[in-house]
Amino acid sequence: MSKIYNLVPLINLSKDIQLQVLEIRNEEHIREWMITQDSISAEDHFNWIEQLKSDQSQICLIILDEENVPVGSINLKKINKLNKNAELGFYKASKHNEKGLMTKGLCTIIDYSFSVLGLEKIYTEVFEGNIKSINIHKKLMFAEEGFLRSHIINKGERIGVYLYGLLKNEWQNNAEKINTPNGLVFKLS
């Protein structure tokens, strides 16, 4: 039997679910890989959500399980319609360990980005040391496009940032080779 997950815009969710998303955003294992690592206040969180409502350059989708509990997020930001590209970001709640969840969810968003939004490239930045993120980008056929040495300060130390990119034609020619769990279904709402 398949497990169904919904990808729903954060701005369309109830305040209660938006607060649950804030709890996930504030988990230590997520904040440690963000540029701003401070805990996010409810006021800042809701101001950001309000700003998202009018910002056409970002889409923040929340992964909801079958009980409507948020388990993660997949975001497209810096959507550039002229250059047909966008930056990808994602995170998953620590208490949710569904194998292949992010791979399947990211495949859904990558397909959507190329086929519906008309993008031709998706790119991302990954902090040096974030092995899980590096591995998932490699699994999804993102090419390493560069490395910014000693680029940011993370936990008091200077670290580098990897740059990854995925082109539409690379995805179209190779997406079927990605091994994703058959029992997971993602629906865009």
Which fold does the CATH topology refer to? Aminopeptidase
Q: Any idea what the CATH superfamily is called?
A: Gcn5-related N-acetyltransferase (GNAT)
Q: How many extended strands?
A: 8
Distance between the termini: 21 Å
Layout: helices, strands, pairs:
Elements: E1 3-9, H1 15-25, H2 28-31, H3 42-52, E2 59-64, E3 70-80, E4 85-92, H4 101-115, E5 121-127, H5 131-139, E6 143-154, E7 157-167, H6 168-174, E8 184-188
Parallel strand pairs: 1-8, 4-5
Antiparallel strand pairs: 1-2, 2-3, 3-4, 5-7, 6-7
Can you walk through the features of this model?
The chain has helices spanning 15-25, 28-31, 42-52, 101-115, 131-139, 168-174; strands at 3-9, 59-64, 70-80, 85-92, 121-127, 143-154, 157-167, 184-188. The radius of gyration is 16 Å and the shape is globular. Helices cover 30% and strands 35% of the residues. A hairpin with a 5-residue loop joins strand 2 and strand 3 (70-80). It has 189 residues and is α+β, with helices and mostly antiparallel strands. The chain has an 8-stranded mixed β-sheet, sandwiched between helices. It is built from 6 helices and 8 strands, in the order E-H-H-H-E-E-E-H-E-H-E-E-H-E. It has one domain (3-188): Gcn5-related N-acetyltransferase (GNAT) (Aminopeptidase, 3-Layer(aba) Sandwich).
